[in-house]
Amino acid sequence: MNPDQLLKHVSEALAQSDLSSARKLLDKLLSLTPEDKDARHLAARLCRALGDNEAAATHYRVCLNRDSSDEVAQFGLSVLGVLPKPSRVPDSILHHVFDRNAAYYEENMASLQYMTPKILEKLLKGLERQPVQSLTLDLGCGTGLNGSWLRSRSRHLVGIDISPQMLRIAESKKVYDRLHVSEIETFLESSVESFDLIVASNVLMYFGILNRVIAGLTRCLTQGGIVAFDLEGLKETETEDTILETVGGRFAHKPAYVQRILIDSGFNVLVFEKEVMRYEKGQPVTGLFVIAKRNELGKLKP
């Protein structure tokens, strides 16, 4: 295999938590391209997954020594606690990771028994007395895993994502009326449209501080509009409202923190439940599933 093929297979193995295969492939990759930045990033991810944070930090430092502006390495050192914790995952990392993984994203999610779309669909149906035809926004729609069930309940369906490659796959499903390449907070703060329903599946865990994105949701929802999303939850005994997870590099949030921000931003919380969202290494990963309604106190667009 050439280096590009090896990079692809290492990414797949890491996504599926097949650490043994990832290590063997990485050894081959680094022997061919020891100076390659992407290979070093993947090596650091593998070390984090194996619990060898010192080795992971070494890989990131090698990258920064070669390129001091390397945001992946900077963020990796933040995950490890070497650098200060950022408020969210940088756009450049999300764009790069999801563009690179787009072709096999759905296969990887299937291997994790990813259940969030079905859970959000079930919870929304449980609140409805009759079918609703909404003006709907699929926030961070990716390859369109929510597209088919949202289409059935939407008179107009808009999807946005930061990854053009993910959106190409979503477009091929022909369920969206419009698709936009956009960063989430920027879209929410600039959109001239209001939506009856906004769904954010596997999205908000890339944000640590939620104030700005929740304010954007308030701005873009109609009065009485609904938002539905999932998060990775923390125990209430944690001292911080949000932590940056060492292995996944995503944020987990304390339930009380999430509820407080929603209420302060003009939402009534309708559903706040814990359910298994996926499996990693055969073990269930429990998430928070939230549905909230924008009330009359929600802030109107300026």
Summarize the structure.
This protein is an alpha/beta fold and 302 residues long. It has helices at residues 3-15, 19-32, 37-50, 53-66, 71-79, 91-101, 105-111, 116-127, 147-151, 164-172, 184-190, 211-220, 255-264, and strands at 134-139, 154-161, 178-181, 195-200, 221-233, 242-244, 251-253, 267-280, 283-294. It has 2 domains: 3-84, Tetratricopeptide repeat domain (Serine Threonine Protein Phosphatase 5, Tetratricopeptide repeat, Alpha Horseshoe), CATH 1.25.40.10; 105-294, Rossmann fold, CATH 3.40.50.150.
Characterize the structure shown.
The chain is of the alpha/beta class and 302 residues long. It folds into 2 domains: 3-84, Tetratricopeptide repeat domain (Serine Threonine Protein Phosphatase 5, Tetratricopeptide repeat); 105-294, Rossmann fold, CATH 3.40.50. Helix content is 45%, strand content 23%. It has helices at 3-15, 19-32, 37-50, 53-66, 71-79, 91-101, 105-111, 116-127, 147-151, 164-172, 184-190, 211-220, 255-264; strands at residues 134-139, 154-161, 178-181, 195-200, 221-233, 242-244, 251-253, 267-280, 283-294. Strands 1, 2, 3, 4, 5, 6, 7, 8 and 9 form a 9-stranded mixed β-sheet that branches. Helix 12 links the parallel strand 4 (195-200) and strand 5 (221-233). It is globular, with a radius of gyration of 20 Å.
